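User: Structure tokens for this complex, please. No commentary.
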Amino acid sequence: MTRISCREAMRQALREALTRDPRVFLMGEDVGRYGGTYAVSKGLYEEFGPERIRDTPLSELGFVGAGIGAALGGMRPIVEVMTVNFSLLALDQIVNTAALYRHMSGGQFSVPIVIRMATGAGRQVAAQHSHSFENWYAHIPGIKVLCPATVADARGMLWPALQDPDPVILFEHAQLYNLEEDIPDALEVDLESAAVRRPGDAVSLITYGGSLAKTLAAAELLAAAGISAEVVDLRVLRPLDTETILASVRKCRRVVVIDECWRTGSLAAEIIARISEQALYDLDAPPARVCSEEVPIPYARHMEEAALPQPEKIVAAAKSLFG
Amino acid sequence: MNAEEMRVAALSILRTIAPEIEPAELVPNRPLRQQVDLDSMDWLNFLMALHRQLGVDIPEADYRKLVTLDDLVGYLLGKQRG
Amino acid sequence: MIEFNLPSLGADMDEGTLLEWRIKPGDTVKRGQVVAVVDTSKAAVDVEIWHEGVVHALTLEPGQKVPVGTTMAILREAGESAGQVEAMRKQRSAAKLPPLAAHVEPGTAAVSAPHREAPAAARRPVSPAARRHAQELHVELEGISGSGPHGSVTVADVDKAAAAHHTAPLDRKAEMRRAIAAAMGRSKREIPHYYLSQDIPMQRAVEWLLRENEKHAVTERLLLGVLQLKAVALALARTPELNGFWRGDRFEPGAGVHVGVAISLRQGGLVAPAIHDVDRKSLVELMGSLADLVQRARAGSMRSSEMSDPTITVTNLGEQGAGAVFGVIYPPQVALVGFGRVADRPWIDDTGAVRALPVVTASLSGDHRVSDGIRGARFLTELHDRLQRPEEL
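Assistant:
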């Protein structure tokens, strides 16, 4: 067991990838000399040199495209997009090129690229830098979408993601970078399954990424109120591990999905659709959601807090499923 | 755990073996196995569950000390302190 | 083509209700695989299959109640094509009337009940899970008060209503009583019982067991009943005519020693499923099997082979205080061994001295069509001797 921060875990993961595979390189805005906007790649420029830790111009469309080209050419690029809102500038490259090349080339080419980006709100960086668009990417066939919520997953997901022959998007919730947790020395990480982070039997709380800590806090409050909540961490947002979701719902018969995306068309909506399709007769109450309020995320702290999922909102939603 | 908590814990484990019991109707100082109708397999299952959930190992030689619910609670409390 | 028919899961069963399929068309099945769950009025039993093949079609729907022997599924044997099997099925159904015609669809009886009209506005919410649960328990949703959100009826409400009305448990109890009545009535009508008993000193067995159990944690302890089971199984080697079945006016020896263990259920009633090959299992294995069997019997999840093939039954009423038990043989078996209470009694030992020793009265109920009293007496003596050498069990 070692106790490290999420930021340090991600740095270790990058260092491991750069050391183990000479085809791996990191590219993005300020990842080199500056050490990364969130200081994840601090020190790697000095350690691995400008060939492998490459600062790019401010052009997401350009450098994501260059990353795709490098992947097609046999490299294993890790492209850092500063935050998810900037990835909208590269959407065409991700959706139309990276996700489709295997199909469009009749299987002749694949794009083994990993695109990392920070996501989520809660740091008073105002509306443009507080988005959660995980659901947009989870909508697209052809890419895999990962979202670590624990330090262990932050440490362990990158290497298997690089082994995937197709594009992988790795969402890092910006509130997690300072999170410190123990991680086991021998880490085993799969990119298929959701994880039950807390067992329970009265209500299933399904979440991922930056909302896991809030959901675990809610589960603690619910336990104090005599309600045993099970917490499921999705981990992989595409493809979804429907089996684990349904197993938890079938056991608890009540479900709340917690998702920082806006409610309409959220990932929570998709999860509840699957539950309705496949486990309707196991439900003892209508499924519930806690998502962000449908407003631009405010700057003022109290208003930002009010706009996002919080433990109290999760507790209230869960309690509403009981009479 | 204090005596009351231990009693509640033991009864909740007992209910997993004999779901039909009404804890309120059990007389704590009368022989337990007669009141609850536990055969030796039930009894062993009960002791195994105590072992699993409370971490208490009860040697067979001590079985005869455990006649009533009061005996059991007292015995478990003693083991907890020891 | 193989027709898989509803097996008899005990002499007292003549029909069963399919609860659940565990296979679907296209599956490959192996010998011993659990393929369905069938309710025999006594318990929900996992039904195993003893053929190999590929599932071609399931001819029974969950919920259907059918007589023993009804075809439940059609299997393709190795090398058969779907077309061949279809052709054979057509031929057969042309030769005889479709067997499914006689089956009663579930719920058809209920349809004729007077239809209650509820005003649409007053429709009370019932959670989907509660609705299904109520159907399973045969509980009327009418009149159940809902504790869920917006007064909706939940699974817990249905459970509460079921417990209050005792609908399902009472039915189950009555059905089990009927099943026991049928089997025991048949036994006393058909089987000419003879009864023998012998007092067996248990000091060696009790002391040996105490020493063994001292060495082990509570999770690995043995019960005295396990020693008795093993001793019965080993003693049968000398009197094999007590182990097997009476079928069609002749005795069929059992293919192994599968001891039916009489297990009383907490909600009332009795089942006697088998532990297989008791003579070849170690005491530790037997203890595991017994614990597992008791637990599953009480949870109502037994396997068809356990229900249908005990070759002899052992019953133990000593814990309930009985000094001895002279039991009724469970047909088509031909013997039943009973144990009473193990209690200290005056005993004259080898030196002629009177001592207080733990003693048990073992009894044998034998089928006189198959065995004679002298053979039964030999069995009890052998049982006595085995129990004096617990370390060899």
